[in-house]
Amino acid sequence: MDFGKLPDISKVDFALPPDHPDTLATLQQHAAGSTGAPAIYIGLPVWVNKAWAGSIYPAGMREKESLHWYGKQFNTIELNSTHYHIPGPDTIDRWRHAVPQGFRFCPKFPQLISHEAQLRSTQDLTATFCEAIAGLEEKLGVSFLQLPPSFGPRQLPELEAFVQFVPESVPMAVELRHPDWFKDRAASQELYEVLEKYHAGTVLTDVAGRRDVLHMRLTTPTATIRFVGNGLHPTDYSRIDAWVERLQQWLEAGLQQLYFFVHEPDNTAAPDLAMYLIERLNTVCGLHIKPPKKFVQAVQGELF
Fold this sequence. Notes:
By secondary structure, the protein is of the alpha/beta class. The chain contains ten helices and eight strands. An eight-stranded parallel sheet has the order 3-2-1-8-7-6-5-4. The model has no long low-confidence stretch (mean pLDDT 95).
């Protein structure tokens, strides 16, 4: 992901900001009605990566089997392909049947809606998209609306009309990138009130070059986090440690769902950092997330 990417991260303050003042209240508000354990989903932004063959995928795996094996290792996917085209029913069926029960696809709204039209006059296209991803049935997770840096607070009426139009059967989280959403307190307060009103969540993006988008405001009891690492730099691990501490607090306060997507340059190392995240969550938060298993490569010439 190029958004917020920096060639030099040596001067970046990666400390997690404090929670927005209303985040704890939002979680506590929903905690009373919650039952059972929280649902934790950890995944990556792609399922095809040739470098994973012989590591998290079998060495001899065919590329068309990638989703099947990905679903054995992780329980969610940041589905970026839907940003570029709406999949047909056959594709949706193939995806749904390729993964096990408990898996969640998190599709991104098409760029025709979010970037080109910037939510104006998109009802027909939005209805088509929502109908398509509804075919994922119980394997549909949170969908996310990623808005471009040009989409600012003056367009809040368009955003409100949009989130009101999306059916409740399509859970949604919104990622905003225009700096004014975070500089203007009045604008951000209006934004969060709209999202809460229509039960839409926020996307928190942890990336080196745009620390402002890490606003730490949850508007629902679901957290959607996009974490962008820097090639397994030591700060990748210390940042994950900080997130685990924060997530422990949110879970204790009533967080009901977590979607956490790990990005790395070309994503080759993303599974390694995701494994570290799962290990830390299990240890610190007392969770029981199934960790991915690595395939051990046989050494040529050794039988035993």
